[in-house]
From TrEMBL, chains A, B:
Chain segments annotated as coiled-coil in the UniProt record: none
Record has Lyase as a keyword: yes
One GO term (biological process): D-serine catabolic process
InterPro entries membership: Ala_racemase_N, D-amino_acid_metab_enzyme, D-ser_dehydrat-like_dom, D-ser_dehydrat-like_sf, PLP-binding_barrel
Protein species of origin: Pandoraea horticolens
Alphabetical UniProt keywords: Lyase
Name of the protein in question: Alanine racemase
Length: 385, 385
């Protein structure tokens, strides 16, 4: 377990707050943990860059062995392609209005894969492809847990969509699924069961396509919890996961990381107190932490985040219990701290671990990446669509 | 009541989704509604630009009669000062580490006012002012409802802080309070009572300062609900409010606006369905809507937002009932809609009214401002700190 105990604290003290801080050794630990697991399981790994939206982070993932990336917007695809990544899966259902942007990327040399789960969209893709002479690489989204989009493995629509694509001249690239419901569990047994359901469902869909004489080279599954819980990945060719790169309190509650693996935090300054209530007021409100309250229904509710000292070590029992736009309310969980003013004087720098790294990161235009020796580096982050 | 029925729908159809759309006639209606009320009550009005973070919006507020603005970050102060606004209140408690940025703004000619509620910060302000030869204009934050920061009107600390500032050479500019707890009520009587508590508490603090021989020219109060509910504002010199400029579903539940006054919405495209569940999947997930679930505990829970047609008219009973990062789940509130595919075919453009305009706006780098005739204008929005 890499530690950041010896990070240059002086350099953190010069940052304006609130600031999003990446603990680079922890991030690299997380990247290597996931990549080595994927290598052991014998599958390719395609990280979802929607978590970081940051080319420096994606480069570290690719340097560690990732083959291509997953994106959540076409703006991400364009940004990461500009940075040299060519193998990109846009993992949100394609619609006609977004095909021109997808075409533009492919014409520039991007090996962009797109996704569909309906005959209507498949028809739009092949019609547009025919009109512009483009052979789109299309994957069919499979629903293995009922949480969002996709065609269930046994549905007739699976073959209908596949035939529209295949007969319409598109490349039928494979099937993909995402077991987002894995976030709802917190035992190894339950996570392993969701992972097996995700694997088996996606493999079954691929088998149905192949049995019908249709191509299905790729079988792509993944979420951070299932990627870390799967007992085996027989029949799967690649895995996708996003939040593992930073982890967060939601993932900690799910049980797939320790708090010592959380690589993203928000640096904040104590700006006041309500001493009688045991509150310190910090300059990280919901604009900095995001409104994500993902731990609210989990086994432990961390409010708007776990309070840490500037060196990243946890202050047990202290969380952000409330948040206004630019004000966070820091308090002790069980009973008010009568010594709150002395414990956290005005001007104290603290770091807050977030509930959900994808949501918190999105509030910031850039990260400050810290390493044991040396100044923080500024890593820009993509914003918007 | 201004309507947008005759907005150019063709121009909306060319926007990439998701997109943040401002209905300009509605926004101007809201601005004039609030300004005329302030004029009638005989107070100056200082809108809080944290809601829009957009110079075009602030210009409309100033054109309508606002005297100065309120900001939530020093980055906002710098941006709006660059645009020509000089009278700016930074309404978050000042700390030593932010004084250099405040000094830089004042040295450039910005009439920046800062806020404190502690002896420690007051001492830091006067020490820094003495060191750099700057006379800061400081307002004391008053706590009139216990929801966040500030000194209660009868606390000894009020005079202690005021004397540190006054004797230390700062300009004691006044007192300010924000009754954020007003968001928790939804009857005219309760809102009027919170407004009176806010007014009376802040005036009482001013009276205590003046009785002690200390200056207190400004008495500044405000929140959108209390600004709209106050029976009178005797003793108050100025009011601040932010979200009224767009309003949102939270404010609708509070009871201070109709849905016809909501000026901000998110344009989205239907990208898929789960027909058996009665779901349409749209490309506005929580990254577009924000994670704000402010209506969850109110009298009506709108999920992640109210569904509207492209012309802005409401589709009654349909909300975003769930959200992933780039996927929204649109469903009928009471029972699944068996006709969801026909009602909202793939490619359909819809607009979603947000729970909280400040949070939803923050997810976008720019707004698309629509007027009855003509193309949407792109209005940039400030992001980060």
């Amino acid at each position: 377990m890499t530690s950041i105990r010896n990070v240059s604290l002086t350099s953190l003290q010069t940052l304006e707050t609130p600031a999003a801080v990446i603990d680079v050794p922890r991030m690299l630990h997380n990247i290597h943990r996931m990549q080595s697991r994927m290598d052991t399981l014998g599958v390719r790994f395609r990280p979802h860059v929607k978590t970081s939206k940051c080319v420096e982070v994606a480069r570290a993932q690719i340097d560690a062995g990732a083959t291509g990336i997953t994106v959540s917007t076409l703006k991400e695809a364009a940004r990461f392609f500009d940075d040299g990544v060519t193998d990109i899966l846009y993992a949100v259902g394609m619609v006609a209005s977004k095909l021109p942007a997808a075409l533009a990327l492919r014409r520039r040399g991007c090996d962009l894969k797109i996704v569909t789960d309906s005959v209507a969209s498949a028809q739009a893709i092949v019609a547009f492809g025919a009109e512009f002479g483009e052979t789109f690489d299309v994957w069919i989204e499979i629903d293995t847990d009922g949480h969002r989009s996709g065609i269930r493995p046994e549905e007739d629509a699976l073959l209908d969509v596949a035939r529209v694509l295949h007969e319409g001249g598109a490349t039928l690239g494979g099937v993909m699924t995402h077991a987002g419901s894995s976030y709802d569990f917190d035992t190894a047994e339950a996570l392993a069961a969701v992972a097996e359901q995700e694997r088996a469902g996606c493999v079954r869909a691929a088998t149905r396509l192949r049995d019908a004489g249709l191509p299905c080279p790729v079988v792509s599954v993944g979420s951070t919890p299932t990627a870390l819980a799967a007992a085996h990945l027989e029949g799967v060719t690649e895995v996708r996961a996003g939040v593992y790169v930073f982890f967060d309190l939601v993932m900690h509650n799910v049980g797939v990381c320790t708090t010592g693996e959380l690589a993203l935090s928000v640096l904040t300054t104590v700006i006041g107190h309500q001493a009688e209530k045991g509150w310190a007021i910090v300059d990280a409100g919901w604009m900095a932490m995001s409104r994500d309250r993902g731990t609210h229904k989990q086994k432990r509710d961390f409010g708007y985040g776990q309070v840490c000292r500037i060196d990243g070590s946890i202050v047990p029992g202290y969380t952000l219990s409330g948040a206004n736009q630019e004000h966070g309310i820091l308090s002790r969980d069980r009973e008010p701290d009568a010594d709150i003013v002395a414990r956290f004087p005005i001007g104290t720098l603290l770091r807050i671990m977030p509930n959900h790294a994808c949501a918190t990161g999105a509030q910031f235009p850039e990260y400050h990446a810290i390493v044991p020796d040396g100044d923080p580096a500024v890593w820009p982050r993509l914003h918007g669509w």
